[in-house]
Amino acid sequence: MQLDGSIPQKLLRPSSLPSLRPAPNSQVMKQQSFLFLACTLALGAAALWIDLPLTQLVAANLTPALDEFFDDLSGVADAETYALMALGAYGIGLWALPRHAVRRWAPVAERLVRGGLFMLLTMASGGILTLVLKHLVARARPSVFLENAFYGLATPFSGSPYNSFPSSHTLTAFAVAAVLAHLLPRWRWPLMALATVVGLCRVLTLEHFLTDVIVAALLAIACARFWAPRVLAPNMEWPLRGPWHWHRKTVR
Predict the structure, then answer these.
(1) What is the C-alpha separation between 16 and 213, in angstroms, rounded?
(2) pLDDT of the chain along its 252 residues, tens only?
(3) 125 in helix, strand or coil?
(4) How far are the Cα atoms of 67, 76, 192 from residue 196, in angstroms, in the given order?
(5) Distance of alpha carbon 76 from its chain centroid, rounded?
(6) Max alpha carbon distance in the chain (Å)?
(7) Taking the CA atoms of the chain, what radius of gyration do you get in angstroms?
(8) Proportion of the chain in helix, strand, coil states, percent, rounded to 5
(9) Which fold has domain 64-245?
(10) CA atoms within 13 A on the CB side of 140
(11) CB atoms near residue 227 (< 10 Å)
């Protein structure tokens, strides 16, 4: 031990000094930024070299019977139906939660409240983002190319048929699948497979390009991942209150 106040030499060696590693949050942000850039480049490449040839291939082989079949199959992604079901579950759970007569059903009521609100917020946020992108991007639908040989973007807010990107039906299908996958983890792969079928049907009916479907799916999954910890976590008590009491800090 040195008593003259000097620092031992071994503590001055580089291996002894603390490593200046970036903070975990910084690393996560870099990874997310890289992933976003990679996805953007991949989608751009798909829009340039896959969307149009795939649409032409489908158009050359699509029959009226297949078109009707695929259209009916994609009809399972009816946003209003799922929104009403989620609203019903949320309302019933919110009504039952504070009532002593049904106290033994409190865990079920809480799951209904959290699950219903999770579904509503995921669908609403994803739907708003989809609507904004549809109007701003103003991408021509496949029918415009097939009829007028125009493939590209129009002036923002041009309306139909310049509202192909992203796909609303696919957004709904993947929003429902992603929410249910959080609530029923064992069923996540069948749910995602069903949502994928809906998305592919939108391509096979010539309603959307492949990248319209992919972006809608990613958007829905991102919205579900954003809301899941904010609604489903047990320490989050605000979902168990009525919307008019969300600003309060306590539930009971």
Answers:
(1) 53
(2) 444 545 455 444 444 444 445 445 678 788 878 888 998 999 999 999 999 999 999 999 999 999 999 999 999 999 999 999 999 999 999 998 887 656 677 889 999 999 999 999 999 999 999 999 999 999 999 999 999 999 999 999 999 999 999 999 999 999 999 999 999 999 999 999 999 999 999 999 999 999 999 999 999 999 999 999 999 999 999 999 989 888 776 544
(3) helix
(4) 17, 12, 6
(5) 18
(6) 93
(7) 25
(8) 70, 0, 25
(9) Vanadium-containing Chloroperoxidase; domain 1 (1.20.144)
(10) 16
(11) 23
What does the domain layout of the chain look like in residue ranges? Answer: 64-245
Report d(CA 165, CA 156) in Å as an integer.
Answer: 12
Q: Strand, coil or helix: what is 172?
A: helix
Query: Among positive and negative, which fits the CA dihedral 137, 140, 141, 142?
Result: negative
Residue with tokens 């992604």: 77
The CA-based dihedral angle spanning residues 184, 169, 47, 128, taken in that order and rounded to the nearest 10 degrees: -90
Backbone angles phi, psi at 205, to 5 degrees: -95, 5
pTM for the model: 0.86
